[in-house]
Design brief:
The protein has 780 residues and is α+β, with helices and mostly antiparallel strands. The strands form five sheets. Strands 12-11-10-13-9-8-14-15-16-17-18-21-19-20 form a 14-stranded mixed sheet, with helices on both faces. A hairpin with a 2-residue loop joins strand 8 and strand 9. Helix 7 runs parallel beside helix 11 (272-285) and helix 14 (337-350) packs across helix 16 (377-393).
Length: 780
């Protein structure tokens, strides 16, 4: 970096800081951009710039960069770099994080540490961690503290610490620590031989110091060690950056890394969130956890905080509060135990006078009603029967259950894409069915926690259990909040295991903790993501419904991966194991691609994007377009609709207006005809673009589409005849015919492009545009 560039940067940033300090917002924006640029410079040049400028601090003021540190907790806001700039500050310029596990013979050593054995130093480090555990163990679950210890070190000295200080069974400690080794360690991507989290953990020793300092020794932005005032501290917050530099000590002939971790000794109760923050900071800054390891660690932290239990409790509390209203809307049959429980609630509720007394007593009455139904078999069975009636009234049928779960899985994959390709697994077991996917887990906020909160994803379980309520916003397939509940048409006891939510649902909406569910979700972990598992034991007498559901799903499975927005693989496991896949290959023309179906039923088709999340599919043979299988519905809203058209194409459209059961098109004065006319206009334009694509280079298109005739002289003629045959089927259908007209669908194509077969021999043209063509009626 040239000296002139550095001087120019300093002058500009000095001028900008003066203007910004005076309140000129535009200057602050330009300064931020300049700061981002210089942060990409070599470290020496960056330090030189910092030595001569003012920078914004977290308290909204400006200060010399010599008195400011970035990415350091525990210092006063007046001396910490503004948070929006910390994102640009290069970590490598301010700390010494893990990047290798090679001996560090060139680094300074600690002679006092070297005079001790490894076991002695381990015991000292364990003793220092004991003080942290003592501060937290009365407020924080022991499993979470055992996780903290396991992240730091897993030798006998630290195992004894867990046993004595936390009184946690060894089996529980083994389970948590094994998860660290088997999941997080295995997710680590080594950069060179010997590079692993296990080796890093073996080399690293942490010594904890509880303190409440007035000043903190940190590395300023200029690269100098300075004393900065301490800020507002929370319990066990890591103070400063003293844990980042590592000191190499030779213990028993091997290099080890000794780090000192200063944490705040504040006389306030310790909360689980503060231990979670401590674990995450140590993992990243002392052990070099990669992003995929951090994600898995975050999951393990949540489990050790027992979020799954609180999730079920929260759902129960919300359902309990609304239970009287839910039962009233369901209208239980008079004379049943369920109706008697509701009537008793109403009598008691009506006898309470308005005012404070009512406010106090109403929750107790709701609790009594909830308990009476939840804990007794007869009213719970009657509740299930009533819910099934309601589901069927909305148009849901048992053979659509698996499609509903597939739609939920695709929504989850869109909301929080799996690390690898999204896929859906259906298992046919002796006792029933099991569905798995690896999208966003139930109640998980996704990558953006604030967005997930706004979308209501943290109430997933509650919404899955509640009748006709959904926090699915735009961009998901479900619209009526009843899709998941259709599983109760097959089973009286459904299991949900997803990340850290595990419960079984009986009575159609009554959840209870499913202890084995946590293990099942973990057993099917893929690329660091736990599975969402829906366990559906088929109720006796409903085996035929389950068989029909599987048959209907299998018949559509060939095209389902092409219809979904994210899932491109479906796997069926059971007596007959099969796989279906789909991928889209670009043709060079926007909105026109070839879909390649793989697995059990390979094939190809043309996919035409028509806008508004609508895709028009034409199956292909070796000659060109051909009708789809006769048993296959033509219309899809991700899953097939129960509509029979006399057409040969398939269309997947989110703009379809459907009935509540999502099985059929909704009817009105001008629907669905108006929708088909609107789609037809887009189809006509796309067909003309298809003509242009074929005219440019038939051979390339034919090879991509898997067509046998690659000759530009004969191949296109056969293709357009097959296309005409395909669309001719539409004119016998009262709905499909609305796709076509002078400016729509096939009518637009033959009007603008020479693709209308004439049936005439040479020297006449084989194809004409429809507008100049005349029809001649031959005498009989």
């Amino acid at each position: 970096m040239a000296a002139g560039d550095i001087e120019q940067a300093v002058r500009h940033m000095q001028a900008l800081s003066e203007l910004a300090e005076g309140g000129v917002e535009a200057a602050r924006d330009v300064f931020t951009r300049a700061f981002c640029v210089v942060c990409s410079w070599p470290s020496a040049a960056l330090r030189q710039v910092m030595s001569d400028i003012l920078v914004p601090t977290s308290d909204g003021n400006w200060r010399s960069a010599r008195e400011v540190a970035g990415g350091v907790s525990g210092i006063a806001a007046s001396h910490r770099l503004a948070r929006e700039l910390e994102a640009f500050w290069p970590a490598s310029s301010s700390d010494d994080r893990i990047s290798d596990v090679a001996p560090d013979s060139g680094m300074s050593c600690n002679s006092a540490a070297q005079s001790r054995t490894l076991l002695q130093l381990e015991r000292d480090c364990a003793t220092s961690l004991k003080k942290v555990l003592s501060r937290a163990k009365s407020e924080v679950p022991p499993e979470l503290l055992a996780l903290l210890v396991g992240i730091v070190r897993q030798t006998e000295s630290f195992r004894a610490l867990v046993s004595k200080e936390l009184a946690l069974p060894e089996a529980a400690t083994d389970r948590i620590w094994r998860r660290i080794r088997d999941e997080i360690d295995n997710a680590f991507s080594p950069q060179f031989p010997g590079h692993s989290l296990y080796n890093i953990r073996q080399k690293t020793l942490l010594k904890f110091e509880l303190a409440q300092p007035r000043h903190v020794d940190v590395l300023a932005l200029t690269g100098e060690r300075v004393q900065l005032p301490a800020g507002s501290l929370e319990p066990l917050l890591i103070i400063g950056d003293g844990h980042r530099p590592r000191r190499t000590v030779d213990l028993e002939g091997r290099d080890h890394w000794l780090r000192t971790v200063m944490v705040a000794d504040v006389a306030q109760p310790v909360e689980a969130e503060q231990i979670q923050k401590l674990i995450r900071t140590l993992a990243v800054e002392c052990y070099g956890y990669q992003s995929q390891c951090v994600e898995m660690l975050d999951d393990l932290v949540r489990e050790c905080t027992r979020v799954e239990q609180t999730t079920v409790d929260d759902a129960c509390a919300r359902l309990e509060d609304r239970f009287p209203q839910i039962l009233d809307e369901l209208k239980p049959t008079p004379g049943t135990a369920l109706r008697r429980a509701l009537d008793e609630y109403k009598r008691s509720e009506g006898a309470i006078p308005p005012g404070n007394e009512r406010t106090k007593r109403l929750p107790e009455l709701k609790r009594n009603l909830w308990t009476a139904v939840q804990q007794q078999q007869q009213p719970a069975s009657e509740l299930l029967y009533t819910i099934r009636e309601k589901i069927e009234q909305f148009g849901y049928s048992p053979d659509r259950v698996l499609f509903e779960l597939f739609q939920n899985a695709d929504d989850a994959a869109v909301q929080h894409p799996p690390p690898d390709k999204a896929w859906f697994r259906l298992e046919s077991l002796d006792r029933g069915l099991r569905v798995l996917h690896w999208g966003r887990p139930v109640n998980h906020p996704g990558e953006d926690a604030e967005f997930g909160q706004r979308e209501g994803w943290h109430h997933d379980l509650f919404n899955m259990l509640l009748m006709n309520l959904s926090d699915k916003r735009e961009g998901v397939t479900g619209r009526f909040g009843l899709g998941f509940k259709s599983v109760h048409l097959l089973s009286e006891d459904v299991g949900i295991a997803s990340g850290f939510v595990a419960c079984r649902v009986h009575g159609g909406m009554l959840p209870g903790v499913w202890d084995a569910g946590r293990r099942i979700s973990l057993d099917f972990i893929q690329d660091g993501r736990r599975a969402t598992v829906i366990d559906i034991p088929v109720e006796p007498g409903r085996e035929g419904h389950a068989e029909n559901a599987v048959t209907a799903f299998q018949q559509a499975a060939r095209w389902l991966p092409a219809m979904s927005r994210c899932i491109r693989k479906i796997e069926l496991s059971g007596p007959e194991s099969r796989v279906w896949t789909a991928r889209f290959e670009a043709t060079g023309a926007p909105g026109i691609s070839v879909v390649v179906l793989g697995g059990a039923e390979p094939g190809r088709g043309l996919a035409l994007e028509l806008g508004e999340e609508t895709t028009f599919f034409m199956p292909l043979s070796a000659d060109g377009p051909r009708p789809a299988e006769a048993r296959l519905p033509n219309l899809w809203l991700l899953a097939p609709l129960a509509e029979s058209l006399a057409s040969g194409w398939l269309m997947n459209a989110r703009q379809f207006r459907v009935d509540p059961g999502r099985g059929s098109l909704a009817r009105s004065v001008d629907e669905p005809e108006a929708t088909f006319e609107r789609i037809g206009a887009s189809l006509g334009a796309r067909l003309c673009e298809l003509h242009d694509l074929i005219a440019r280079d038939w051979a390339i298109f034919a090879a991509l589409a898997g067509l046998a005739d690659t000759s530009s002289k004969t191949g296109p003629a056969t293709f357009w005849r097959r296309l005409a045959d395909l669309f001719a089927m539409d004119f016998d259908d009262p709905i499909a015919r609305h796709l076509h007209g002078p400016d729509r669908g096939f009518g637009r194509l033959v009007g603008d492009c020479p693709v209308l077969p004439t049936g005439l021999p040479k020297p006449f043209h084989s194809f004409l545009r429809a507008r100049p063509a005349r029809r001649e009626r031959r005498p009989r």
